[in-house]
DNA sequence: CGACGAGTTGCGCTC
DNA sequence: AGAGCGCAACTCGTC
């Protein structure tokens, strides 16, 4: 008897496109009798990830566009959206639709790996063959890591070397010209309802959530959900998702060959907003509505036509931007869940930030809640998130982020530096959570990686380079057009004061129709005669900057990483000062000039594979007098034998021991 | 091993 | 007005 003709489910996830899909090509190569383009409404996304209305809308845009494109190729087909978790749904569909093959694109995110392992095991038990192809990145992150000696890719040099070993980036695959019919689409089984608690997205909804009220949607037609079916508040962003929009945007960028060939990220203006100065393609890459390999080769084609001196190169050019994405995927892939948090992360420095994450003891994962170790830091975080810090540049960015779901890369630097090492000294995990909620282009690997970069906990370490909320935007926007647009209360302030309005004389404030007072909690227009109010700055930036740099310096010398036993059991505190006022700004900070510095009595322990071995045999010459006068501290984990005229030289010691 | 230069995107001052 | 340097100082990669 001839083998049955393949009946295939193509499971869409972060690959909402028809062009350049190695997995879709593999599905079609099976010459199936029927093909079901499927989307499973994963409760992990609905209830357990932070997703604000703007990213929801963007996802629905992508799904609607994809569904329409599928129907164009085969009027009987569409994107079949089924409201159930893949882990429970797929096995039932295998049976109901007599499926022989399940095909999907590989996903190396921590949760996705777990989910896909589960699904693959169940498929095997059901006698369904599974085909997985990589399509999300230029290189398979697991292959990239292998080529990097099995280690997470932590620098762009490592990525470039590893990539060289892997050879050329795959050439894009054209979209299919036709698609097979779907088969019978009856659903003769009960829906498995997910548990909506805890519902991390509850705050995003303004009516009853009907996400799982009926398997094939309210009309039983497998439709893409609407925002109202999901109970979500309306989106506020003007940015639209979908493969059609993405390909059009790509064409437009590539047609401007000068822009494409001479793009240099550090020189793009973070204050440009209409139009913005970068490509705005990141969200398309996130949802897969634009293939990174297509973008790569289209840019390469343009670069080929330019002579060496006329074009930019990685890491600053457009290709370089893709390489950073590869780096973050290659860092996440081997680290799994620990990548997205400090606790247990072998490659993330431990810094005693304010508002630290709460850890679930049973699995060592962050819970999404945090400790308010200092009430002041709690207030600062609130004011940062809601754009009321009193620093117009920071507030304008945070309001743009909330409103539009996108801000320029350097704007992200500015607000991230401000929240962490260059202002509030608040955990990067708090900031990453806000970005996760509000960005339309949120990609776990990139978001987490960039927050670690900016907070100098991984990837980057020049913590003394600090963005000023006043000087930095002045470079590209002397008149403050960006601030005037997103913080309209300040729109009539003179240029001179636009980034530091608290310095404006009262007469000027009155003339501009806005008074600088309060902490941002007053209602707008509360002032007499409808005069507007903008808050006073929440702290003296220069003073905070100094405190933070000193605290960072100290934490670097202590040298703990997230997987250190003392980080895990909480006894890291013995290396830092004064809990009552927060570990970074204790009383001793005044007495010795270094915030949070504590005289560590003993204890040298290894932190994972951090290379402490290089200290083997080096005598501990320190702990005594030094040119610093009163310096008398030891690091539990010595980083380096000797610095180049740095304090490192004073932190000698024997090899750390576990 | 050590020295040295570089590192996608700092600031503020001088010339 | 734009380039260059000092600031006080990090890690990585290469020689």
UniProtKB/TrEMBL annotation:
Q: Identify the keywords attached in UniProt to this record, alphabetized.
A: FAD, Flavoprotein
Record-annotated Photolyase/cryptochrome alpha/beta domain positions: 6-138
Against Gene3D superfamilies, the record matches this protein to: 1.25.40.80, DNA Cyclobutane Dipyrimidine Photolyase, subunit A, domain 3, HUPs
- Taken from the record, one Pfam family name reads DNA_photolyase
List cofactor names only.
Answer: FAD
Residues annotated as binding FAD are 278-282, 321-337
| GO CC annotation, single | cytoplasm
List GO molecular-function terms, semicolon-separated: deoxyribodipyrimidine photo-lyase activity; DNA binding; FAD binding
> So which domain of life are we looking at?
Eukaryota
Entry note: cofactor:
Binds 1 FAD per subunit.
Q: Name one GO biological process term.
A: entrainment of circadian clock by photoperiod
Q: Which residue intervals are annotated with compositional bias (Basic and acidic residues) in the record?
A: 202-212, 602-613, 627-636
Report if keyword Flavoprotein is assigned: yes
Instruction: Tell me yes or no: is Nucleotide-binding among this UniProt entry's keywords.
Output: no
Region Disordered: list its residue ranges: 190-214, 578-658
Which PROSITE patterns does its entry note? Answer: PHR_CRY_ALPHA_BETA (PS51645)
User: Its family?
Assistant: Belongs to the DNA photolyase class-1 family.
The identity of this protein, by name, is: Photolyase/cryptochrome alpha/beta domain-containing protein
What is the originating organism of this protein? Cladonia borealis
């Amino acid at each position: 008897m001839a083998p049955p003709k393949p009946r295939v489910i193509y499971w869409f996830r972060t690959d909402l496109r028809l062009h350049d899909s190695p997995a879709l090509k593999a599905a079609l190569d099976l010459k199936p009798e029927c093909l079901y383009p499927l989307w499973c409404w994963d409760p992990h996304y609905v209830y357990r990830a932070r997703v604000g209305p703007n990213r929801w809308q963007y996802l629905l845009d992508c799904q609607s566009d994809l569904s329409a494109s599928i129907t164009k190729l085969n009027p009987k087909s569409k994107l079949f959206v089924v409201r159930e978790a893949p882990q429970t749904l797929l096995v039932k569909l295998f049976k109901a639709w007599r499926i022989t093959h399940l095909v999907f694109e590989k996903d190396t995110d921590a949760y996705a790996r777990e989910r896909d392992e589960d699904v693959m095991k169940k498929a095997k038990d059901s006698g369904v063959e599974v085909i997985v192809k990589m399509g999300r990145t230029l290189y398979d992150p697991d292959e990239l890591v292998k080529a990097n000696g099995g280690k997470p890719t932590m620098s762009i040099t490592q990525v470039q070397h590893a990539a060289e070993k892997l050879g050329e980036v795959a050439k894009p695959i054209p979209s299919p010209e036709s698609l097979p019919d779907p088969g019978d689409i009856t659903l003769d089984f009960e829906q498995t309802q997910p548990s909506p608690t805890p519902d991390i997205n509850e705050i995003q909804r303004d009516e009853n959530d009907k996400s799982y009220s009926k398997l094939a949607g309210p009309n039983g037609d497998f439709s893409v959900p609407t925002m109202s079916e999901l109970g979500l508040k309306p989106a506020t962003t003007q940015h639209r998702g979908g493969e059609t929009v993405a390909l059009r945007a790509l064409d437009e960028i590539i047609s401007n060959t000068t822009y494409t060939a001479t793009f240099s990220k550090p020189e793009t203006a973070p204050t440009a907003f209409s139009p913005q100065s970068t490509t705005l393609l990141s969200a398309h890459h996130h949802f897969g509505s634009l293939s990174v390999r297509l973008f790569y080769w289209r840019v390469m084609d343009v670069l080929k036509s330019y002579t060496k001196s006329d074009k930019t190169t990685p890491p600053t050019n457009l290709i370089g931007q893709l390489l950073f994405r590869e780096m973050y995927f290659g860092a996440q892939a081997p680290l799994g869940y620990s990548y997205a948090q400090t606790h247990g992360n072998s490659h993330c420095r431990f810094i005693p930030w304010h508002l630290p994450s709460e850890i679930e003891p049973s699995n060592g994962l962050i819970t999404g809640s945090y400790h308010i170790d200092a009430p002041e830091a709690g207030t600062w975080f609130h004011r940062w998130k809601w754009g009321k810090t009193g620093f117009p540049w920071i507030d304008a960015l945070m309001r743009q982020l909330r409103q539009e779901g996108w801000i320029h890369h350097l704007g992200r630097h500015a607000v991230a530096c401000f929240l962490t090492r260059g202002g509030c000294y608040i955990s990067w995990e708090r900031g990453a959570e806000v970005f996760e909620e509000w960005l339309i282009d949120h990609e776990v690997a990139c978001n987490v990686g960039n927050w670690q970069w900016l907070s100098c906990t991984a990837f980057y370490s020049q913590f003394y380079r600090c963005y000023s909320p006043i000087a930095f935007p002045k470079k590209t926007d002397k008149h403050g057009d960006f601030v005037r647009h997103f913080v309209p209360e300040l729109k009539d302030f003179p240029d001179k004061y636009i980034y530091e309005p608290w310095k404006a004389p009262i007469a000027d404030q009155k003339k501009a129709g806005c008074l600088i007072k309060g902490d941002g909690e007053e209602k707008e227009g509360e002032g007499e005669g409808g005069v507007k109010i903008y808050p006073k700055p929440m702290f003296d930036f220069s003073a905070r900057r100094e405190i933070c740099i000193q605290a960072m310096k100290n934490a670097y010398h202590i040298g703990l990483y997230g997987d250190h036993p003392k980080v895990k059991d909480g006894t890291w505190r013995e290396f830092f000062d004064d809990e009552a006022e927060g570990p970074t700004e204790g009383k001793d900070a005044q007495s010795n000039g270094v915030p949070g510095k504590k005289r560590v009595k003993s204890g040298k322990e290894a932190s994972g594979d951090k290379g402490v071995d290089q200290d083997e045999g080096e005598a501990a010459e320190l702990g005594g007098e030094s040119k610093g006068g009163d310096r008398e501290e030891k690091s539990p984990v010595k980083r380096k034998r000797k610095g180049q005229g740095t304090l490192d030289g004073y932190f000698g010691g024997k090899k750390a021991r576990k």
